[in-house]
Structures are given as C-alpha cells and as structure tokens.
Amino acid sequence: MADLTLYTNPMSRGRIARWAMEEIGQPYETVLLEFGTTIKAPDYLNVNPMGKVPTLTHGQTVVTECAAICAYLADAFPDAGLAPPVGGDLRGSYYRWLFYGAGPVEAAVTNHAMGFDTAGKEQQMGYGAFDHVMNTLEGAVKDREFLVGDSFTMADLYVGSQISWGLGFGTMDNRPGFKEYVARLTARPAAMRANELDDAAMPQTAG
After folding, report:
1. pTM of the model
2. What pLDDT score does 196 carry?
3. Which residues pair with 4 in a beta bridge?
4. Which residues have C-beta within 8 Å of that of residue 85, sequence separation ≥ 6?
5. Parallel, antiparallel, or unpaired: how do β-strands 4-8 and 55-58 relate?
6. Mean pLDDT of all residues in 97-114
7. pLDDT exceeds cutoff 70 at 130
8. Which domains does the chain have, with CATH numbers?
9. Tell me, what's the pLDDT at 2?
10. Separation in Å, CA 83 to CA 9, 74, 110, 113
11. Crossing angle of the two packed helices 176-186 and 130-141, in degrees rounded to 10
12. DSSP letter string over 90-111?
C-alpha cells in the first residue's frame, strides 16, 4: 500500500487535493481537520506550521500547497498518466498552466473579490490586471478539451478547480468557455468520487 495521508477539510482547497488523490488511484488515509481547533493543534502544526490544509504526506515527505501536491503526485505515480513526460515537448506547457493557475489566477481572483483596486498599478502586480488574466485563461481553455496536448493532466485538474470555484462563488466571469471546460472535467469519475467523499465528510468537520 502507498504510504499516503491527506490532511484536509471538505470546505477548503483540500477538495482539489482530494480529486488529485482519486485520479492517481492509490490507497490513502484521510485526516479530517476542523477550522479553529484541530487545524491549529500542535500535532498538526508539526506537520504544517501554517496550520492550513491541504497537506499531503508520503512516507517522510511532506507536501503543502495544492499545485505542489498535484505536481508531486503526478511525478510520484507516473503510471496514472497525469503529466507529460519530462523533457518532452509538452512538459513546459504543463508547468506553464499549472503554475499560471497557482500564481496569476489565484492572486488576481482573490484581489478582485476583495475589492483591491489595481488601476494604475498593473506594472507592479505580478499578474497585471484581472481582465487580462481572465482573457488569457479563457483563451487557454475555450474550444479545447485539455490544456496540454490531447489528454487530461494535473494542470487541467488544478486550473479546472480554480475556474469551478470562481464560477460557483461568483468571483470569475461566467463565460461560456469556462462553463464548458469545467463541465467536461467535473464529469470525470475521479472528480465525482472526490466530491461524494468530501460532501459526506462535511458533517464530521462542522465543528
């Protein structure tokens, strides 16, 4: 058995990591944490000093941050086919979009939702402007099944999760290209299993 443990809360970005775990198809243990209590307890802070979720442990290896967890799992379990080959033509694009989601998209959406005015400050912002980020993202997913090549990768899982959350919470533009892309991804069996598991776990973390 794979020595994998996912620390999570079903009302968090841990849902992204859960989906990633279901995609690799390996057995894993789930540790559910409650906000304000066990997530800040000393035992968990020894694993992740930030006291945030998700966190993945694989043997003695500790991985935090959703995009890093996705990238790690794809490389640790290559038989799942969730990343292009290292050194291949598509690997650069895979990294590009995976970390575009973790960097410019995450920052732009968060700042926009919080009402942070970037007008006149675009050159100082790592992502430039919210509309530019959304246009770039739409161009990457519109009229294409996958972000990279002709198969699903962890870049799709991470970016698709970001778009799904953005549409669900109204923090992203409700563009047809976004809706169609997310609908395809969330119909995957692993995505549906992950949602079922997290939905069932919600009463256990109500606090």
Report:
1. 0.94
2. 97
3. 58
4. 91
5. antiparallel
6. 95
7. yes
8. 4-80+191-205 (3.40.30.10), 91-151+153-187 (1.20.1050.10)
9. 62
10. 26, 6, 27, 31
11. 50
12. THHHHHHHHHHIIIIIHHHHHH
